[in-house]
């Protein structure tokens, strides 16, 4: 098991069939203000061909599997309702916690992201640190001059799970264009879910699930959303924020 909160993976048992990668509490800076937070997880099969390697080495290599090998992924959103969203590689499902019984009730057996939305989600205080392509894209959709001739609205909670959940429900794009979010714990599981809902997950140039992680805590730009919005965004090419000066809030 590898957690965003630990430096190295933990080898739990020699015969466990699965490898779990998790960000146990995403959006933690929002907790004191009672803003929604989330948990993200991805599940791989244990690579049995590595069984004879030393424990630390096989724990690391098992955790660095490409997102294309995920067998399941999910997130939990802690909000006005507690929602569990999952994929096992054949569509995306949502479950809602029934507080009276403690059960998660299946509330949508096939969640599909709209092909187009009218919402973009980004921390746009960073506008002047963005590359030209991203500025042009956002300026264009704000003015209703994109391929979808409607003026887009902005929504940004700064809790990745909540921003993604809204994007899955209403469509559009959720992004963090700087090297901030983690490939292993965040980008891969969430891209698997978005793809299984009919959308796309990208670093602005490449499909997230086709990337090979090289470091456990590797960070990258992340863009998730509706197919048509994502295609339009990527057509601007220069959308990854290269300067990352460090922001205190
Ligand atoms: O400061 P930014 O670039 O807006 O980043 C906000 C993003 O960082 C997160 O808080 C995750 O960051 P941490 O992993 O450091 O907690 C996301 O929930 C949120 O989408």
Automatic annotation (TrEMBL):
First-level EC class: hydrolase
Domain Fructose-1-6-bisphosphatase class 1 C-terminal per the UniProt entry, residue ranges: 113-236
Catalytic activity line of the entry: beta-D-fructose 1,6-bisphosphate + H2O = beta-D-fructose 6-phosphate + phosphate
Positions of the Fructose-1-6-bisphosphatase class I N-terminal domain: 2-108
CDD domains, per the entry: FBPase
UniProt keyword terms in alphabetical order: Carbohydrate metabolism, Hydrolase
InterPro entries the record matches: FBPase_C_dom, FBPase_class-1, FBPase_N, FBPtase
EC number of this enzyme: 3.1.3.11
Superkingdom, natural source: Eukaryota
Signal peptide feature range: none
Similarity section: Belongs to the FBPase class 1 family.
Stated name of the protein: fructose-bisphosphatase
């Amino acid at each position: 098991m590898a957690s965003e909160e630990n430096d190295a993976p933990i080898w739990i048992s020699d015969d466990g069939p699965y490898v779990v990668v998790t960000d146990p509490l995403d959006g933690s800076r929002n907790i004191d203000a009672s803003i929604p937070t989330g948990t993200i997880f991805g599940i791989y099969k244990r690579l049995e061909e590595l069984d004879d390697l030393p424990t630390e080495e096989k724990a690391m290599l098992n955790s660095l599997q490409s997102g294309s090998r995920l067998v399941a992924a999910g997130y939990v959103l802690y909000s006005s309702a507690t929602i569990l969203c999952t994929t096992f590689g054949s569509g995306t499902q949502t479950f809602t916690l029934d507080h009276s019984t403690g059960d998660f009730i299946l509330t949508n057996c096939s969640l599909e992201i709209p092909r187009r939305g009218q919402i973009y989600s980004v921390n746009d205080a960073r506008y002047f640190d963005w590359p030209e392509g991203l500025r042009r894209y956002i300026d264009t959709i704000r003015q209703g001059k994109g391929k979808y001739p409607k003026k887009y609205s902005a929504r940004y909670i700064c809790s990745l799970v909540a921003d993604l959940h809204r994007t899955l429900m209403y469509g559009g794009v959720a992004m963090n264009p700087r090297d901030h979010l983690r490939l292993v714990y965040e980008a891969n599981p969430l891209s698997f879910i978005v793809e299984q809902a009919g959308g796309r997950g990208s670093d602005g140039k490449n499909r997230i699930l086709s990337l090979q992680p090289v470091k456990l805590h590797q960070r990258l730009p992340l863009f998730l959303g509706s197919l048509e919005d994502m295609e339009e965004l990527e057509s601007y090419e220069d959308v990854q924020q290269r300067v990352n000066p460090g922001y205190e809030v």
